[in-house]
Design a protein that fits this description.
The protein contains 4 helices and 4 strands. By secondary structure, the protein is α/β, with parallel strands linked by helices. The protein has one domain.
Length: 92
């Protein structure tokens, strides 16, 4: 069941941004859902769901291991991310 939810969420991920350091969205490289799926569970990956609180609360699909961060507070939390980790931001 958990695998089915994960695959469903990965299937609806519209945009995934991966970056080794915080960059603007225009500069950040993109990652496919297949590449992300292969990296899930890695201790070197930080997976951040940047959906609005309302969209996140209403969603039944969340990627296990991801954390939700408020996209409107990006400037507040972006500098707290580990620079040695691969940071992946996503929204559905």
């Amino acid at each position: 069941m958990k695998k089915a939810v994960l695959l469903a969420v990965l299937g609806i991920v519209a945009m995934v941004i991966a970056c080794s350091s915080v960059q603007s969205a225009r500069e950040a490289p993109r990652i496919s859902k297949e590449e992300l799926k292969a990296k899930l569970g890695s201790p070197d990956l930080v997976l951040i769901d940047v959906r609005t609180r309302k969209d996140w609360d209403m969603s039944s699909g969340k990627i296990i291991g991801s954390i939700r961060m408020d996209p409107d507070a990006f400037d507040d939390w972006a500098g707290t991310l580990a620079k040695e980790k691969e940071i992946v931001l996503y929204c559905a």
